[in-house]
Amino acid sequence: MTARWRTWGFQLIGGGVALAVSTFVWGQIERADRAMPRLEIAPLPALPAHPPRIAVVMPARNEARGITRSLRSLLAQRFPITTIYVIDDGSTDGTVSVVQAMERHDPRIRLVRGAPRPTGWAGKNWAMQQGIQLAIADGHAWIFLTDADTWHHPELLGLLWRQSDLRHLDLLSVSPTYDEPDSGAVLLRAAIGELYSFVYGADYPLRANDPRSPAALAMGQCVFVRSEVLRAIDGYAAPRLRSALADDRALALTIKARTGRVAFAAAPNPVRTAGYGSLGEAWQGHAHHLWPSVIDEHGDAVALAAIGALQVATVWPVLALGRALWRGTRQGWHSALPELLRFAAQVVVGGSLRWRAARLAGLPRWYIFAGPVGTVLAQALLLQGVRQEGRGITWKGRRYVPPPG
Predict the structure, then answer these.
(1) Taking a C-beta distance cutoff of 8 angstroms, is the pair 220, 404 a contact?
(2) 259-314 pLDDT tens trace
(3) Sequence-separated (6 or more) residues with CB below 8 Å from residue 357
(4) Residue among 273, 75, 250, 266 at smallest CA distance from 173
(5) pLDDT tens-digit series, residues 95-120
(6) CB neighbours (10 Å) of residue 194?
(7) For the domain 54-176+219-277, what is the CATH superfamily, name and number?
(8) Model pTM score
(9) Domain coordinates of the chain in residue numbers?
């Protein structure tokens, strides 16, 4: 009898802890969702009589597949763009020819053949620096940083300028919608999002919008920056920025530490990006963000703790179910009842959390049930990063090794 009550007590304590943690995380998600600014499609009542000069800086390395659509979406902006600097970052496909053809038909497009990359610079960061320097020298008031696989609603720049002007921001970034046709790529992206919530907290977007918090967030597909601030920090020339693989977030952190006027908003319609076309592409792509954002920034201990947290949240309940079924078939189902009830409670609580997060992120419903598989993939990717720490990572044909110390 004592052993039975001990078993029930253990299961109730475990279930209570899981419920408390889940309630805390749910609260974080809800607070962040309520406080998250949103950019909704709405045309400006009227364009300003003297609109500010806005430049676009777009690095491009082997982007022939999608750059035409991206440039057309920028040329179609209702808010006037002065110049679009396309910085060719050593492309070996037809990127240069595509841009040159568009350049001949619209003088706002300016193809810039990137200079050789100096030692200590990441490829994209060096391309961005060249474009930023040109935009500043040409007297632009604002600079819009974007990627060549991203498409922009015609009202986007007007929305970004109006919000930045009204709120006196120096940097405004928004989250894009991903057009990923491959289910494996979607699964891994969602699992990486869960991983980040364990490392940074589910309320990180809320803190990123708090001027009193050092946290900052940006997505490279859509970063609207005040030119004078970029001039003050010398663009990407700071050591923290020139080699940062997660350059978007590093830029937001740098500017927020300097001025505090940085914001991140949700924009489910104005910005769309191609994302990754396969699980293999997603694996490589997320590795190049995961390594600097978790392992290089926080160290192996935090990375391993994140793996443990993910196991507790998703993998262990599945193992507990297997143990309960094993006991039920051998010792009778009454003996497995406590574990079965705890598993059911964890499924309900964890499924509810994943359902809420999936709705906010625009994920398909099947992710609610495929979460444990995604967790295993995220754990494997994180373990690969821990194992390779100090030896670097390959991204877009280049090898990046972290500086010592």
Answers:
(1) no
(2) 999 999 987 778 999 888 888 888 888 877 776 677 666 666 666 676 676 666 66
(3) 29, 193, 194, 197, 202, 363
(4) 266
(5) 999 999 999 999 999 999 999 999 88
(6) 23
(7) Spore Coat Polysaccharide Biosynthesis Protein SpsA; Chain A (3.90.550.10)
(8) 0.84
(9) 2-32+298-400, 54-176+219-277
